[in-house]
Each structure stands twice: as structure tokens, then as C-alpha cells.
Amino acid sequence: MTMWPMLLDMSRDECKRILRRLELEAYSSLVSALRAQGELSKEKRKLLQDLASTLNISMERHRAEVRRAVNDEKLATIAEHIAGPNTSTDWAIEGRRLIPLMPRLVPQTAFTALANNVANIAAAENAKLPPPVNTVKKNSKFAVHIHFLLTIHGIEEC
Amino acid sequence: MTMWPMLLDMSRDECKRILRRLELEAYSSLVSALRAQGELSKEKRKLLQDLASTLNISMERHRAEVRRAVNDEKLATIAEHIAGPNTSTDWAIEGRRLIPLMPRLVPQTAFTALANNVANIAAAENAKLPPPVNTVKKNSKFAVHIHFLLTIHGIEEC
């Protein structure tokens, strides 16, 4: 006698929805992992094609996932450290749209004048600051010194 | 002039760790999605093999992921609803351990007598209740009636 039901209490509709989510997430995480490994080789493209047909991924969605991955700074950083520079070219080509996006006009609302004003003030303030490439890195000597000073004065870093 | 750094401030070591995590997660979610689709076909096994070599997944880890998926009630429920009954046989064979786990003795501690006592009392109480297979399902007529009664009396369901 089975004491417990072997299956969960889910309707067919729920199951279909969850399966679709699993398929989409699996494809997405695979594209991320392959992008982080470096260049898009022929074998990887073949692998993605096989997988796309098994997981019912359309060409359009495949391209969208590739665009997401190729524009991801974290994945680009990993690829640069692991496989060297300039690994994104083939990925960028793979993800290219067949029909480019239509340019959209900036919407005009009652707050546009105020928003423009604030944006200009913020941009003027930002222009006085050094660009992020010239600021401290988290593992630099300077950062270590700051951390030491904060620690001996009992100040918590944010 | 680039205003922003194009790459994130991560060390090579961090990158290697994140890449490994991405590879493992991608393989894991793919095994889940394929298991939820139903039986393990020849094509799916081939696909998993190709992917395992690309993502540096060992045979042992592949088997462990398959065992995780085949013992997952949610994935089993989805497979049953989508592809029909008895889809787990080939998956179970694929995930089988080459060397069975050693049986482990139940540890004896100062609390063993007390724990056994409580377990026996709880089991006796549970034996008086109907088994879960015979209890109400969330979409059954009975459940809808209960929900209606609770609603008209302004009682919140937990």
C-alpha cells in the first residue's frame, strides 16, 4: 500500500506552464555559460541548434537570448579573463536582428521640462567627477589602505 | 573616450569560479527540462553527452544530476501529465550508481531513547488519520465548496 501520493497535485495546465518555464530557463542558462566560456565556435553553434529544436526554442528567441548574453558585462568580463580579448564578434553576429528596431521619439509629457532641467544639473555635477575607469579598484593598494583606516577607527564600510 | 569601464572589476579567480557555477547550473537545468519532457530518448542522451563534454561535466556528476531529476516529484508529475505514465525507467537506469552506497548504521546518542519514544507516539497518531491519497485535492468539488463556505463566513484560508 502506498501511504503517500507519488505525484503532486498539479493540473495539466500548470504542468505545461512549468515545463515551458524549465525549457526557456535551461536554454537561457546554457547560452550564458557558453558565452562566458569565450568565442562562439562551430561546435557550440551546432549544439545550440540541436538543443533549440529539442527545447522548442524559436530562431527569434534564440537571437534574443544571444543578444542578452552578448550585452552582459559580467559574462564579457569572464570571457575576457578566461579566453582572452575580442570573443564577442561571432556572438554579436549570431544575435543580430533581421529587421532593425524602429527608432522611437522621446515622449513629451507635463514633466519633460522639469526632467530635462534635473538631468542637465546632474550631468554638470557628474562632469566634475573623475570617470570610473580612473577611480579606485576594489583590490588596489589604495582600497586596502582605506579599509585599514576604516577598521582601526571602527567605521563600518557600506 | 570611453566614459565607463567596459568590463567589471573581477579577478581571474572570481571569473573562473563564476564560469564553473554557470556551467554546472546550465547542465542541471537542462537535465531538469529534459526529464520533465518525458522519456530519455537516444537523441536526448546524445545531446547530454555532447553538452557534458562542452561544459566539462564528469560522468559521475552527470549521473548525480540524473538521480536528482529522476527523484524529483514535481518533474515526475509534469512528465506524467505531458508524456503519459512510466517515463522514468530509462532515466533511472542512466543515473544508476556503479558502486552502491554503503549502508549506514543508525547513530546512537543520549537522546535516542527519547526520540524513539516521540516517533512512536507520532506514528500512532498518524495511523488514525486517512492517508494523503484519500484526502481532498485542491481543485476538487469538495475543496471548492469549502472555499465557498469559508468565503461567505469571512474566514481566511491558511
UniProtKB/TrEMBL annotation, chains A, B:
Chief place of localization: nucleus
Localization of this protein: Nucleus
Native organism: Periplaneta americana
Pfam families: ENT
Alphabetized UniProt keyword annotations: Nucleus
PROSITE patterns in alphabetical order: ENT
Protein name (record): ENT domain-containing protein
Stored SUPFAM superfamilies: ENT-like
Residues forming coiled coils: none
Gene3D superfamilies linked: ENT domain (1.10.1240.40)
Domain named ENT: residues: 15-99
